[in-house]
Structures are given as C-alpha cells and as structure tokens.
Sequence to fold (256 residues):
Amino acid sequence: MAWSATQYLKFEEERTRPARDLLVRVPLGAAARVYDLGCGPGNSTELLIERFGLRAVAGLDSDADMLEKARKRLPETPFVQADLSTWKPEAPADLLYANAVLQWLPDHLSLMERLIDHLAPGGVLAVQMPDNLDEPTHLLMEETGAAGPWARAFAGGRIMRAPLPSPAAYLERLSRKASRVDIWHTIYYHPMENAEAIVEWVKGTGLRPYLDAAGEDHAPAFLSDYTARIARAYPPMADGRVPLRFPRLFVVAVKR
Fold:
C-alpha cells in the first residue's frame, strides 16, 4: 500500500498534536541517539530535533513519498528507507520514538519488546497509536465495503488493521524488560469543517486500503457512499463544523 504525504499533511497540526503530547512524557533530559520510527513527512522528526538537537536525530520510513517530503523539510537530517519490522539501530539508542506507525505492523507488541533490546540502559521506547477502530469513521468503511458493486473484494472479511491489544497486555509484556511502563489513552475532539473534511482525513490513512480494494473504477462511488454515511453519523454543531472523536493509545517504556 502506497501512502500520500500530501494527503497526510492536509491535517498536519491535528496529526502533530499527539506526537507533541507523546514527546512531553519522554523522561530524558538529553539524548545523543534518537530515531523517529515511521517518520512520515518529517513533522514528528522536527519535534525531536527541537528537543534533542539536529545531530542526535535520524528518521526512517518504508514509504518513498513520505521520505521525499521529509528530506525536503529537513535536508540536514538523515532519513533511511527501511522495514521497521526487521530494522535495528547500529548502536544502542537513547530514544526510539514511534508516532502512529506500529498499529500497521503485525504483532507489534513483540516488535516493541525487540525494540527495547536495542535501547541503552535507561533508554526510552515511546509509542503512540490510533485506537479508533470502533469509531464510526472505521465501522462505516466496512459498511460501505459490503454495500456496492465492489462488495466481492470485501467478501473475505474486514481488511482494516488488527485491533490494539489491551493496556494490560502492554504492561505485562513490556514490564519484563522495562523499569517503568507508562500507558494512557487520550481522546481528541477535532472540529472539522464538515463531513467531507472527515473523509479527507481518513483518505490519508485508514481509508486507503479500502479504496485500493474497491479499485480505481469504483473509487468515486465508494467515496460517495462512504461520505453520505459519515454525514449521517457526524451531525454538525450550530456553527456547521463537525467534531471528530479520535482515541489514541500512548506507551512510554524505560529500559532497565
């Protein structure tokens, strides 16, 4: 699945806010080796540079378009194209920072355990992931998938990513290698211009595999059906804007 950095950045401020909130909770006064895992177009990498300095930070992502935008944004920062499921740093890291990426990887809890192995003692693994599969934005993708001439492509069941494990699962697994594990949920309410804006938001992430499955010929009709369902599920406020409820899970683990 290819990503679109331009589509993703249409809501840069809203997408960067959780990255900023995660970084605030990282208990490091200084760090010499920091990796932005799944750096995307570099918006989160920029936050890390502001805190730890240009020479400390590197970014990696699997998507070429995201990396192109990141390199244009931060030309002095090293960015590497890599598969996060197999990547490891050349030397123990002080901070491995993963904003809205691990939810896409199978068995990411085991991956998080492996990443802790590549931290220096006292190093930090900091992770933020959307926890929104039960929100109308995602449930309605399934409804639309079953409702049109593209339905055959969805007959095998849900194509969205797997649900996140329970907070207890993260605590139990990560505490084997960490002296401290901090886990919390935050629910953001983003005031969107209208239902169409919500659709534009998810076109940059969760809706992409559905549009890919529906196929190029069906994509306009798929979007039309989905947008109508979103408009019914998210009634506007008095000023016409629509509040988008967005739960996210945060994990900060400090290696023993």
Remarks:
- The CA atoms of residues 190 and 244 lie 5 Å apart.
